[in-house]
From TrEMBL:
Annotated Pfam families: ABC_tran (PF00005)
Keywords for this protein: Antibiotic resistance, ATP-binding, Nucleotide-binding, Transport
Signal peptide: none
SMART domains: AAA
One annotated GO molecular function: ATP hydrolysis activity
Taxonomic placement: Bacteria, Bacillati, Actinomycetota, Actinomycetes, Propionibacteriales
Primary location recorded for the protein, binned into one broad class: membrane
GO biological process: response to antibiotic
Superkingdom field: Bacteria
Membrane protein topology class: Peripheral membrane protein
Chain ranges of the ABC transporter domain: 5-235
Name of the protein in its database record: ATP-binding cassette domain-containing protein
Length: 313
């Protein structure tokens, strides 16, 4: 397969500090790829290199089949940046913003008008299309920003924290829009601190830490890699909690004596649950509540990334 993004052993230093220390990354066409990492892990640096905004010191990086160092012009023709790089002009309306981008991308006047109408419909901007962007809500502005990046659909779209600060409904709408873009064949590189966003949107995720990719996989693969499902038993009093801890005697069970909860690794089958609850009943240590917990991307992030990343730099 020809990957839209192919990065091998990429190195980048600022002064004497190595920020990227041999990064490998492969992103399939039409997929959404999440890039996770603590503050200062090097996500922005990697995106800037791929977007030809800065150079690198070693390794190789290709975007849409072009070398980012030697064929920067071709790479620029294949990419679009949104998010913190927002290009929306506040004093213009959505229609004017879209038409301006279309004209800058050398569409004719008639083509620009037609493309603007198409994008207004697709990104649900009809109600606000002739109002100044300065009056838009956060969600409306994000949708306009995305629409502007799609005037000429890029091969690769960089999205930086696309839903930060949005209410749940606007956030869902932006997520749905991003998925639609990927369905039309656009490859998306998503950088985010928001793990639920990565979980919802990304087909695959790379976790960057200490200048390297320390884990790469689908959200589900990453979650099962760090932890399995856990059965949480909640108690109402310390005596019963203590009796349960003694009765279980499994080294994997972890207890919280303040919250009076016990977490027991479980595969969730009825037989294993029955056995566990029977054992507890015999020991007169039945819990007040039982719930299943699947590992989240938060667990993945906390397990795989070093806590003191930024402090070292
Ligand atoms: P965040 O999540 O906080 O945005 P990030 O993962 O995007 O972080 P980068 O912005 O890529 O991280 O920064 C990686 C490291 O490189 C940080 O320690 C930062 O201080 C350093 N750095 C970034 N740009 C420069 C620069 N122009 N000169 C010197 N150091 C820099």
């Amino acid at each position: 397969m020809t990957y839209t993004v192919e990065v091998q052993s990429l190195m980048k230093s600022y002064g004497g500090t190595e920020v990227l220390r041999g990064v490998d990354l492969a992103i399939a066409p039409g997929s959404v790829h999440g890039l996770l990492g603590a503050n200062g892990a090097g996500k922005t640096t990697l995106v800037r290199i791929l977007a030809t905004l800065i150079g690198y010191d070693g390794g190789s990086a290709r975007v849409a089949g072009h070398d980012v160092a030697r064929e920067a012009h071709a790479v620029r023709g294949a990419i679009s940046l949104t998010g913190q790089y927002a290009a929306v002009d506040e004093v213009l309306t959505a229609r004017e913003n879209l038409t301006m981008v279309a004209r800058l991308r050398r569409l004719s006047r008639a083509e620009s008008a037609a493309r603007t109408d198409e994008l207004v419909a697709r990104f649900d901007l009809g109600a606000i299309v002739d109002r100044r962007a300065s009056t838009y809500s956060g969600g409306q502005r994000r949708r306009l920003d995305l629409a502007m990046s799609m005037v000429v659909p890029p091969t690769l779209l960089f999205l930086d924290e696309p839903t930060t600060g949005l209410d749940p409904r606007s956030r869902d709408q932006v997520w749905a829009t991003v998925r639609e873009l990927a369905d039309t064949g656009v490859t998306v590189l998503l950088t985010t601190q928001h793990l639920e966003e990565a979980d919802q949107l990304a087909d695959r995720i790379s976790v960057l830490d200490g200048g390297r990719v320390v884990a790469d996989g689908t959200p589900e693969e990453l979650k099962t890699q760090v932890a399995g499902e856990v059965l949480r038993l909640t108690y109402g009093d310390a005596a019963t909690y203590g009796a349960a801890l003694a009765a279980l005697r499994t080294p994997e069970a972890t207890g919280d004596p303040v919250l009076l909860t016990l977490d027991v690794p479980s595969n969730g089958t009825p037989d294993s649950l029955r056995y566990l609850l029977d054992t507890l009943a015999v020991a007169e240590a039945s819990p007040r509540r039982v719930s299943m917990h699947a590992p989240s991307l938060d667990d993945v992030f906390l397990t795989l990334t070093a806590p003191t990343q930024e402090a070292h730099r």
